[in-house]
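# nightly structure sweep
# worker-07 picked up a monomer target from the shared queue
# config: single-sequence mode, recycle default, output format = structure tokens
# input follows
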Amino acid sequence: MTPHVMKRDGCKVPFKSERIQEAILRAAKAAGVDDADYCATVAEVVSQQMQGRAQVDINEIQTAVENQLMSGPYKQLARAYIEYRHDRDSQREKRGRLNQEIRGLVEQTNSALLNENANKDSKVIPTQRDLLAGIVAKHYARQHLLPHDVVMA
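# output follows
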């Protein structure tokens, strides 16, 4: 049975070991490691670890890849993969809804947020603090407190 991968955005996609191999190859290139066979072997080992399961989380896959790389001969490849994942996570976070809303407040470009209460001047620090608290609380509730179907409604 081929598992499905639960992505960060909540959608499920079929598991593809090629995606693991591509990520390892990119890290290998960054680390100056020219061993495509080793990268393919690591991807295959991780793929075998995931087989037989109905669903796997993307973080489980990343951890399995990191563990395989750290136990292998190319420590610099393991470090490059971890740094690559960290950079991708940072980029994803920058593109995320929370950062966009905060940036809209700070840069004064989110007119819906800035005009949500005509009795408050959104340019003064105490009001911005209150608006920022609202943004963060709303994001936290969507991510951690409310059921997915409620958030999507």
